């Protein structure tokens, strides 16, 4: 499932794969995968025992916070991406 999330003119696509991973043992955990362009790591795993709605809302809130920080510092999206990858000026 996917959703294009927009905030203050910035867009990102959030993709969710339900039950994407299952541990192969008795009573093993299952995980959903959440992918988004702005996340520092490519995939975030959410345990199926956790509340999926709260986790997805948290990821959307993380995107909004990142945009707000960029606006406060008046830095472009590209600079922010490169800095999150460890590049310096």
Would you write up a description of this structure?
It is elongated, with a radius of gyration of 15 Å. The protein has 2 helices and 4 strands. A 4-stranded antiparallel beta sheet has the order 1-2-3-4, covered by helices on one side. The chain is α+β, with helices and mostly antiparallel strands and 89 residues long.
Global outline: elongated
User: In percent, how helical is the residue content?
Assistant: 25-40%
* Overall average pLDDT: 86
- What structural category arises from helix and sheet content? alpha+beta
The arrangement of helices and strands along the chain is EEEEHH
Oligomer category: single chain
Tell me the strand order in the biggest sheet. Answer: 1-2-3-4
Uncertain stretches of 5 or more adjacent residues: none
How many strands appear in the DSSP assignment? 4
Distance between the termini: 38 Å
What are the SSEs and their pairings?
Blueprint: E1 2-7, E2 10-22, E3 30-36, E4 43-47, H1 52-73, H2 77-84
Antiparallel strand pairs: 1-2, 2-3, 3-4
Quick overview of this protein structure:
With 89 residues, this protein is an alpha+beta fold.
